[in-house]
Amino acid sequence: MAHIPRITPLATASATFLALALLSGCAGGVSAPSSSPSSAAPSGPAKGGAQQADLRVEEAWIVEPAEEGTTSAYFTVFNDAEQDDPLVAAESSVSATTALYTTSSKGMEVVEEIPVPAGGGTELRPDGFHLMLEGIEDPIAAGDTVTLTLTFAGGTEIQVDTPVLERSVGEQGEEPEGGHEGHSGHH
Amino acid sequence: MSIDDPARPVLPPSPEQRTPPPGRRPTRTGTGAWPPLRRLLLRLHFYAGVLVAPFIFVAAISGLLYVWTPQLEQVVYDRELHVPVGAEQVSLREQVAAAQDTLPGAELKAVRPAAEPGDTTRVMFHLDDMGPSYSQAVFVDPHTAEVRGTLVSYGGSGALPVRTWIDLLHRNLHLGEPGRVYSELAASWLAPVALGGAVLWIARRRRRGERLRGVLLPRPGAPGRSRLMALHGAIGVWALVGLLFLSATGLTWSRFAGENVADIRAALSWQTPVVATEVPAASAGPVGVDVGIDHVVQSAREAGLTAAVEVVPPVSEGSAYTVTELDKQWPTNLDSVAVAPATGEVVDELRFADYPLMAKLSRWGIDAHMGLLFGVANQLLLTALVLGLLTMMTLGYRMWWRRRPTGATGPAFGRPPGRGATRELPWWALAVVAAVAVGLGVLMPLFGISLLAFLAVDVALGRVRAARERAKVP
């Protein structure tokens, strides 16, 4: 007589599990997400910039004056040298004086210099350091370009062609600095 | 005569097994708790082993591959990870700038400066279309600031694509959440199957009068099933602690059991601390000033972080750079400091030595599971464990195959151990078994649910068979 094995339900179940398990194990494809780099330039209106020696000025702009004769200027300066090189003086082509200010809890006050650490940078902004252009005789408006001359402790003088922008337009381009908190899980 | 009669437990024919003589029915008080408990364990071990082993096969093989991915990555991504050793390095700021030039506008996420001579610096960016654990890693030669390549990096380990692929295979078979549930099922059952099997094996050897040697190094005896079982049992006992460890640590990653673990850790304050990233106003220094990443790394080195580190730039206004060590190999170096951007001063620090004990154990457990804690020795030990596990499962199926009746007709595989043992357990033993099952079922929900489902099907099938038998007997 021929041996006719009867396949028990249990054998069928386990064979099915085994097959499914192995098949699904083989089924994966490369699952890394697409790696297209994000689109090109930072957003916001064009701002002024210049570079000399180891100093690099970027994102320079002047606020359209709200009141006659006075306004602020902002920019970011990077120092690629080995020594700190603070900004010690500034001049502009439209104002009588250009002073270095900082914003503190007591309000705005004049400072002697704006620090620019070696290997780092300083961002001039409304809640921190900024330039005050005072004594502007001919009124300036959004769309004009002003020449700022920045003098640093190490002797470098940089001239920056700086656009005048409405405050809201200029601040809209400001991006939060730094990176993205990304550590997840425990591995 | 029905061989499925629950009153007569049917055991497979083999010399070591003893079948009660026909007609004698063990009473509750007569023979004690062990024989029915043993049959229950055997039945559980058999069914669980046969049904869950396929899941464990996949987890074991994918895990074995993962254990060797550190070496694999070094070979596959040699161009990105290694450069000729040079004399001087350019500043980290320049290296980061070179990387940023390849991805203008991308958000900088983290930087891993080159640690050893011949390594590259890894600069990681966040891209909008990436999931939270992923980043775009740009590899830069620290001597020339030349970009060596770009790869997708995943997770805190910074896994590169091949390793990420194997990692996901192990976690969820690339099937997303259902796959994760599937691998949790395997991990949940591994512990009860292994423990039950160990108990059975030790009891078996003791019944034969053998002592420890019989458990760990049995003489194979006659060829055939008993030799297979000797290997299966001995490997199982040697591997038991390792398997329980893999199961327990693996479950911390899982969805259901992992949530229970997280809840327990939260309730008992066993969680892993994190360094504070907010800079207190008093130490913040002037607004808008940033000392640069080189100064930050220097401050971290001076604070005692000597291993390879990862630097995370400030994520928002008023937050600090965080610098964290990356050395998970014993002795673990995972200290982190927070550095104020304007002053370059350390404003908070977290030393691994100050972690709560449970957080340290958890960290070590995870790193040992991944084969990181003890370097190559760890990897070899895991390899041996997995090969033992694969061998055991294969032997289990072979034993089942060998038990098949070789008569003219009958089942293709051996019959499962008989049901009905629970009815013969003393009430107190049954209570203990139920309590253990419920406890495990609550801690590992997938174990509980699948056990309940199995019991339901088993009871139903038993009733169906009993009804059929009653119908046959006139």
TrEMBL record, chain A:
Keyword vocabulary terms for this entry: Signal
Signal peptide (residue range): 1-32
InterPro entries: LpqE-like, Lxx211020-like, PCuAC_sf
Keyword Cell division among record annotations: no
Region: Disordered, residue numbers: 31-53, 168-187
Composition bias type Low complexity, residue spans: 31-50
Residue spans of biased composition, Basic and acidic residues class: 177-187
Keyword Signal belongs to the record: yes
UniProt cross-references to Pfam families, sorted A to Z: PCuAC
PANTHER family: BLR7088 PROTEIN, COPPER CHAPERONE PCU(A)C
Name assigned to this protein: Copper(I)-binding protein
Source organism of this protein record: Marinactinospora thermotolerans DSM 45154
From TrEMBL, chain B:
Pfam family, one: PepSY_TM
Keyword Transmembrane: yes
Region of interest: Disordered: 1-32
Pro residues bias locations: 9-24
Record keywords, A-Z: Membrane, Transmembrane, Transmembrane helix
Transmembrane segments: 46-68, 185-203, 228-248, 372-395, 425-443
InterPro entries xref list: PepSY-ass_TM
UniProt protein name: Uncharacterized iron-regulated membrane protein
